Every structure is written in structure tokens, then in C-alpha cells.
Amino acid sequence: MLKFDLTNSKLLDRLRSEDEMDLSLYTSFMTICKKSEDFLNRFASNFPTYTDHSIEHSFNIIKYIEIILDEVNINQLNSDERYILLSSAILHDSGMCIPPDKIEEELGSNNYKRLKNEYSDGNNEIDFIRKIHHELSYYFIINNYLELGIINPEYAKVIALISKAHRKVKIDDFNTFELRKTLRTGTEFVCMPYLACILRLADELDITNVRTPEIIIKYYEPDDEKGKKEFAKHKATRIVNRQGKIINIIAKTDSPQVYNALVLMIEKIKKTLQYCQKIIHTISGTGRKHYSLQASMIDENIKTIGFEPKKIKFAFNIDFIFNWFVSKNLYKERTFAIRRSCKMP
Fold first, then answer.
1. Residue 149 domain-assigned?
2. Chain centre distance of CA 126
3. What pTM was estimated for this model as a whole?
4. 328 falls in which pLDDT band (50, 70, 90)?
């Protein structure tokens, strides 16, 4: 697959305009891309055996955003929303690139202690960074908005929140993710939950083998089991696209373990799509605009080579369990239940 060319971006084309303010947003975004490229490519210093989180991944996120959104949705977004969505796509993984010895400084002592208590399960600092990188991205953007070329601190905070929302956080917290966030004077506003949903879903969909090129696998394939599965499932995924309401995921593998990992990954994407659809349905009539997400289902086609996949699931017979443990069949006499609940002398 060819490198995603930003000159072909519908979002960027719409952001580029003759309006003086919109032109400043376009200029700012291009500065963000330029300032971020070298920094994002340093993610490998922390994660030499992790799937790609460089500027290429950010460009791919923009591609998937434009796969998810119809042209009608893209046209309906205002300049602020396009600028924030594009900038968040570039910066959402910036937390992956912060050196371990700079993390506490970036977060501040109190936030560092809070996140350590919440996420750390040992002394592995790199794993800790991976778990909190969405939080790190938030603080990195807030702390470095001037150096990144972001318009002002108000825009920076919104970009930071949308970036942070690509994983874990509750997008349906409308006190944080405001439905009508005004950044400029006038009637225009930014619908933060909508942008957050689109970014999270696009990030989930960047799962193809572009993120695990053969040269990386050859020299840096991970030793740990989790890392191997992460590489393998990305390598096995060939195509992700959308046709109407259906997002197609096409993969091929000769490994039962990778097949199981792909199934779990696709289930996670389905849950993300359902979660985002629920939120977007809730906010669909915000102001004069109608927000929507046409994609509503995932169709997976996983071709297996050399084995027949067996999807084994466990289910409970609720009626049997209820009758056995609660009904009169549990004790021969009713008084036994009372006797056994009393403490014997």
C-alpha cells in the first residue's frame, strides 16, 4: 500500500480556503505535521518491537477517518472541527514518544503518582508508558502547544482531549467532552464527542500489515508473547475498507493462535463501533447540525490455511442452575436451610 498522501485528503482540502481564519488553521496544521514528524518517529526508542506509531500511523488514521465519514459528514464539519480532528489524528500517540526519564516531569508529580497507582503493576516502565500513553499525549499537547504550532491554548486543550479519547476514557462524559464547545466568536461550535468517536474508531481500524513491514519483523520481532501476537495479527490483516454500512476486514493466517487473536481484535472493534454509534445517536441533533455515522456493522473474512477454525463458546443453563441452587431440590427438608445458617454451639 502506498504512503497516504495528505494532498489527497478531503478534510485538508476543505480546511484550505480563502477565509483568513481558516487559512491560519490550515497553516497551523501543516506546521503541526512538520514539527511532529521527527518526534513521532522516535516512538521506536521506547518501543523498538511495537507496531508502528510513527507519523505514518497518524497519516493512516486520517485515511481511516475519511473512510468512516461520508462526504456529507466531511462537508458538514466546520473549519474548527476539521482542524481539531486532523491535528488530533497527528498527535494522539505523541505520549508513546516521551523518554521514560521525562515522564514524571511531563505529567507533574501528582498526576504521575495517580497514574502509577492506577496503571502500574510492576517495575516495567515501558509497559507503564504504553498503558498511559493517551494520558501522556494529553499533557504533552497542553505543555508544548506553542512549539507544536497550535493556534492557542484553547484549541490545544480540545485537541489534547480528543487525542486522549482514542482509548479508555469515557467519551459520553459530556461535562468533559462538550456537545457545543465554542472556540471562536459567533455561532460556530465544536461537537467534541463526535470528533472523539471518529478518532477512536479510526485508530481501532488501523490494523493492516502496513504497520508491520517485513524489514521490521525480520530484525525487531518481539520476544514476548503479547508482542508477537500484536505483530502477527497486524501482519495477517490485509484489507480494511467500507461499503455503505459495512466495514470489511479481510485477513489470512496459517496460525490458530493468530486466528484467535484476530477474532478477539475484531470483537473489540465491534464493541468500539457499537459504543460510538450509541454516543453519536444520542448527540445526533445538536444545534442545526445532524451528526451521523453510516457504518453500523463489521463483516470479517478471515481465511485460514491448514486448519479449520473452531469457535468454542461456553453458556450457562440458567434455569438448571436456578432450580438446583435455589429450589426445593437443594435440601431434603426445609428446616435444613435454617439449621445450616445458624451457628452451632
1. yes
2. 19
3. 0.80
4. low
